Automatic annotation (TrEMBL):
Location relative to the cell: Mitochondrion
Lipoyl-binding domain span: 58-130
Protein name: Glycine cleavage system H protein, mitochondrial
Top-rank taxon, per record: Eukaryota
Length: 130
């Protein structure tokens, strides 16, 4: 993959009234980027505030800090059963709080192999940092 990396720098022209381009990219700002194991475990966020990390072909899904703060104190958590097959962007559960309810959408396709059973007993854990 190629990406433009580098900083924008101001081009000053004190004697000129106004520069038509007040910014520019430094020469050589295009570099090749490589992915590796460290980048594969990074959280990737969806537009609906779910996140996913993958490791050894297994994805772990959660919600963003923004989403849990917007919901407020979570009082109910509905999650799929182990063995459920999910498609990307398909609804798979819901969270209910004192302020609102929100559906959860799968950021990837696959089969549920494990759920956080503690959330069924204590949904407020959604509001705690891991």
């Amino acid at each position: 993959m190629r990406a433009a990396v580098g900083s924008l720098r101001a081009i000053s022209a004190p004697s000129a009234p106004c520069s038509p381009r007040p910014w520019g990219l430094r020469a050589g700002a295009i570099r090749k980027l490589r992915t590796g194991p460290a980048l594969l475990s990074v959280r990737k966020f969806t537009e609906k505030h779910e996140w996913v990390t993958t490791e050894n072909g297994v994805g772990t899904v959660g919600i963003s800090n923004f989403a849990q703060e917007a919901l407020g104190d979570v009082v109910y958590c509905s999650l799929p059963e182990v063995g459920t097959k999910l498609n990307k962007q398909e609804e798979f559960g819901a969270l209910e709080s004192v302020k609102a309810a929100s559906e959860l959408y799968s950021p990837l396709s696959g089969e549920v192999t494990e759920i956080n059973k503690a959330l069924a007993e204590n949904p407020g854990l959604v509001n705690k940092s891991c």
